[in-house]
Amino acid sequence: FTLGRMTTEELQVQGIIPKVLGLFDGDGRPDAIFLSHAHLDHVGLLKRTNPFIPVYASKGTSKMMLAGSVYANQQQLPKDRFKEVKPRQAITIGDITVTAFPVDHSIHGCLSFLVEADGKRILYTGDLRLHGRRPDEHKQIIESLGNTSLDALIVEGTHFGFEDGNKVTEEQLGIQIVRQVENSIGLVLASFSPQNVDRLRAFIRAAQQNNRTFVADAYTAFVLHLISADAKIENPLKTGHGRVYFPGNLKEKIERRGTNRANEIFRDSEIDMIEILDEPEKYVMVFRASMLVDFDGSLPFQTHCLYSTWHGYSERPDWRDVKNALAESDGKLTHAHTSGHALSSDIVTFTKAMNAKTIIPIHSFEPETFIEHFENVTIATDGESIKI
């Protein structure tokens, strides 16, 4: 079965949808939904929620969801439900006040939320990291809210129970990517999520510094179109340093269903496979495993694939095919990634600095690990209330 074919009640029985009164069906619906960011583990059930509940999110999150809906079969944030949240501007809903603070994560438009009601103050961190390009955002949260009698800190703990992986900062990783491209002889394939804006910036910079043309697929090009100004990232498609490739599966989809406005924005910058294969050493090309068929299964000589997402995904069958094709071309795959989540030591550093009365870990495989570092930990259990 698939999730799309299951009813809300069936999903609740399976424990996939939480039993929150009125959120998905029934009476007593909540007054608002707040989204921290656009990753699927945070927004994937939105289409199941009561369509009359307004959804509060950043403009960046709305744009990321739009891009995902057009190119990745994800959900768009419905325009009639969307209420824009601006950083540090309080929103009052009934007797609850919510104030958003920007945080650094591996997608554009991320927020944490300070929730105040009945004399109590709770900070939900959303997903964040301290080793990204914007550490000042977290310093500002600590300066604004640390030691201010937070009653509870709901904090992400991804890397408790999940290895840190490569511990380099985004800045250091960007330098490494520039060097990897510099040392590449043939075509460079860049495999990463186009919604990872810092990684997108790193590959664009690496292409420019090595006098290569950055080749975006249509999905990546649309993300650039939507957020380059807000994220302060150069759009090579506007400066003449970039081209757009339409993968074969997208072309087939267009033939079956017709095109859309997003695709047509980039037609003047389109590049075809013949041009890429004619001089592959000139390009840094956005790539995913499904595009191997566009090369007829045979990659150019000494192709170098920079794999910039969690390493576990590279063990999937489709990536084994890519690795085989790289080996046959005398090429190679290099892992070039750092996490979008706070490293385990940084979780402790941030949590201590916030000095909340109660710590509630979420988004973690081992929330109990917080007890090793703090005395005031409350472990959340699905379906059970926590009194602050």
Structure in words:
With 388 residues, the protein is of the alpha/beta class. It is 30% helix and 16% strand. It is built from 13 helices and 15 strands. The strands form 3 sheets. Strands 4-5-6-7-8-15 form a 6-stranded mixed sheet. The longest helix has 13 residues, at 59-71. It is globular, with a radius of gyration of 22 Å.
Helix-strand pattern? HEHEHEEEEEHEHEHEHHEHHHEEHEHE
Q: Could you report the average pLDDT, rounded to the nearest whole number?
A: 94
Shape: globular
The count of helical stretches stands at 13
The helix/strand class is alpha/beta
How far the N terminus sits from the C terminus, by CA atoms, comes to 40 Å
Strand order of the largest sheet: 4-5-6-7-8-15
Task: Give the fraction of residues assigned to helices.
Answer: 25-40%
List its salient traits.
alpha/beta, six-stranded mixed β-sheet, globular, six-stranded parallel β-sheet, 388 residues, 13 helices
Outline of this structure?
The chain is of the alpha/beta class and 388 residues long. Helices cover 30% and strands 16% of the residues.
Detail the topology: elements first, then pairings:
Layout: H1 8-13, E1 33-34, H2 40-43, E2 55-57, H3 59-71, E3 82-84, E4 91-93, E5 96-102, E6 111-117, E7 120-124, H4 135-145, E8 152-156, H5 170-182, E9 188-191, H6 197-209, E10 213-217, H7 218-227, H8 236-239, E11 242-245, H9 248-257, H10 261-264, H11 273-278, E12 283-286, E13 304-307, H12 317-328, E14 332-335, H13 344-354, E15 359-362
Parallel strand pairs: 1-2, 2-3, 7-8, 8-15, 9-12, 9-13, 10-11, 10-12, 13-14
Antiparallel strand pairs: 4-5, 5-6, 6-7
Helix pairs in contact: 3-7, 5-6
